């Protein structure tokens, strides 16, 4: 059973598996998964909307099978919550990758991304996955998409952002380089970030087998690999 996060070797083994490129191609095949349009919906990120949550962002979250409750949606689009989230987004450059050394400043406790995440998860009906997906839509290179399937596959614990940041940087960016290789093998659209490739590979690998209770996680992954 799970005893904490998968190690870097296990992560690399999954990413290096010949099926990972195939999984990415399947995910982005036209009409296969609505989530393949998560980043693309509404066109390329417009400067006007880089720091504001707009209606298209809420639809984008639904493409990932998550839903912002209607009352929270209204507060995001025309209320105080939207204003406060914008205040935090404004402090986060658009070009920072989670693999960058500087990423930590934004995601650590008290950083703007963490503050925005806390503002969202404090609202009734907004769980960690929904909050993460909404912030990932605004800063796709910095904030990873994450849900219960991926958490289970990774044997995740709290602290996912910082954990992933460290894995991406470990051993001279080994995993980051692997994700960029997979981007080519999987013919992934350029607007899709490296960390989304990570999410999609683990989600595709585990979504069929995942059980909401008593799930053993990814099979055939462990110290022996
Ligand atoms: Zn599972």
From TrEMBL:
Pfam families referenced in this protein's UniProt entry, alphabetically: DUF6308
Name this protein carries in UniProt: Uncharacterized protein
Organism for this UniProt entry: Micromonospora narathiwatensis
Superkingdom of origin organism: Bacteria
């Amino acid at each position: 059973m799970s005893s904490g996060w998968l190690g870097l070797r296990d992560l690399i083994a999954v990413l290096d598996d010949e099926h990972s490129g195939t999984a990415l191609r399947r995910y982005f095949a036209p009409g296969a998964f609505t989530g393949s349009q998560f980043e693309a919906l509404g066109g390329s990120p417009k400067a006007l909307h880089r720091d504001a949550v707009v209606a298209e962002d809420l639809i984008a979250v639904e493409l990932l099978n998550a839903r912002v409750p209607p009352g929270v949606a209204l507060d995001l689009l025309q209320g105080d919550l939207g204003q406060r989230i914008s205040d935090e987004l404004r402090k986060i450059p658009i070009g920072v990758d989670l693999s960058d050394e500087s990423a930590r400043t934004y995601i650590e406790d008290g950083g703007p991304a963490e503050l925005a995440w806390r503002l969202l998860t404090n609202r009734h009906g907004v769980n960690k996955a929904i909050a993460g997906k909404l912030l990932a839509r605004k800063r796709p290179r910095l904030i990873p998409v994450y849900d219960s399937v991926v958490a289970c596959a990774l044997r995740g614990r709290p602290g996912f952002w910082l954990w992933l940041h460290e894995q991406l940087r470990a051993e001279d960016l080994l995993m980051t380089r692997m994700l960029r290789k997979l981007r080519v093998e999987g013919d992934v659209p350029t607007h899709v970030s490296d960390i989304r490739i990570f999410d999609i590979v683990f989600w595709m690998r585990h979504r069929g087998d995942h059980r909401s209770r008593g799930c053993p996680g990814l099979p055939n992954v462990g110290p022996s690999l």
